[in-house]
Specification:
With 368 residues, the chain is mainly alpha-helical. Helix content is 55%, strand content 4%. The chain starts with a helix and ends in a 13-residue tail after the last helix. The structure holds zinc ion.
Length: 368
């Protein structure tokens, strides 16, 4: 058992970035708190930009110009009335010129993006601490203690910000219009492969290690080099795409046979298939499988109220964004995105606890 405890100590030393940061004199707890606050504010600003993208991309408009303006009176919104979250409450949710109400969703998306960015930052643990809320910590190379090379995994934080922004954008466009823009799905696949090469830690999967006297033990691992990460990313892309495409084709065939949908209708949009491919490209094949299973479960909860509200015959405009006739369509993209976010933050904990038959909140592993 000595070897096992030595191994545990070794893993816990090498599995958090805090040690390296302290040795380099970089991050004191005060710095960490300041950076966490910065992450929130930065996330709110990106959320503000995402609001523009969510509205304009499906309409084929430029996301850069014209500047933000009121939809009713057309007056430009000056920067001091466009401060994320704050302005919404300062102006009581109304246009400063004409008093037209702004949707509360704008402020909610800004604050929510800020929270996601903070959570991604918190995967970088404070010195001598594990990440809060059971978040998965960033993994480090075992060698090169106290060198700049050991801080390279910190690049995972901006990459996670890019990924989470894509999830928010894709989800809300899907929610509004039942489509997911190609810039999110195909763009996400390309970005997932490229950014994995830059930060192999994005491709973190649950693997096994043989511990003498213990047996097989789940460990987190990621590819050691850029080439390995690109291969892992491509496998994730193909896995996500193939999995959901199979379900889509099979589901469409079955639903048509049962007469639940028309001859030319699809059971599921192709955008969902591309989205799961992008999720796999960013986070690896385990993420694609997990997002699909978690998304399906979450979708059940989401679908029940939507189906109960289903109008008997839809003849013109019961409910927003619903096509003319047939059963009410439920966007699957937001549920896949939720599954992917859960994987990013807690998926490894859930899988390890499942493998070890321990409730997730009681799981004690050095890297979780
Ligand atoms: Zn106005």
């Amino acid at each position: 058992m000595t070897s096992f405890s030595a191994w545990l100590a070794d893993v816990s030393r090498s599995s958090t970035v805090g040690g390296a940061a302290t040795e380099l004199g970089l991050f004191l707890p005060a710095h960490w708190a300041l950076l966490a606050v910065f992450s929130f504010l930065f996330g709110c600003c990106i959320g503000s930009f995402l609001n523009v993208c969510i509205y304009r991309i499906p309409l084929g408009q430029s996301v850069v110009r014209p500047r933000s303006h009121c939809m009713r009176c057309g007056s430009a919104i000056p920067w001091y009335h466009n401060i994320p979250v704050v302005s919404y409450f300062a102006l009581r949710g109304k246009c400063a010129s004409c008093g037209a109400p702004f949707s509360f969703r704008y402020a909610a998306v800004e604050a929510f993006t800020g929270m996601l960015f903070t959570a991604a930052f918190c995967t970088f643990p404070a010195v001598g601490a594990h990440p809060p809320f059971g978040l998965r910590p960033l993994l480090l190379p075992v060698a090169a203690t106290g060198s700049w090379a050991q801080l390279q995994p910190l690049l995972a934080i901006p990459v996670e910000w890019v990924f989470l922004s894509g999830l928010v954008l894709g989800s809300l466009v899907d929610f509004d219009h039942l489509i997911i823009p190609d810039s999110v799905t195909i763009g996400g696949m390309v970005a997932g492969i490229a950014l994995s090469a830059l930060v192999p830690q994005m491709q973190t999967n649950v693997g096994f290690a043989v511990i003498p006297g213990v047996g097989l033990f789940p460990v987190l691992r990621h590819p050691a080099c850029a080439l390995g990460a690109v291969v892992s990313s491509l496998i994730g892309l193909c896995a996500g795409f193939a999995l959901l495409q199979t379900i889509r084709v099979g589901g469409t065939w079955t639903m048509r046979r049962l007469g639940r949908i028309g001859r030319d209708d699809e059971a599921m949009g192709f955008g969902d298939v591309k989205l799961l491919g992008a999720i796999g490209a960013f986070l690896g094949w385990q993420a694609a499988v997990f997002s699909l299973v978690a998304g399906a479960f979450l979708g059940l909860f989401g679908a029940v109220p939507a189906l109960l509200r289903r109008p008997k015959t839809v003849e013109g405009g019961e409910g927003d964004g619903v096509k003319g006739d047939g059963p009410r369509r439920i966007p699957f993209g937001p549920f896949l995105a939720m599954g992917a976010a859960i994987w990013l933050f807690w998926g490894h904990r859930l899988v390890c606890s499942w493998l070890l038959l321990v409730p997730p909140w009681r799981l004690r592993l050095p890297w979780l």
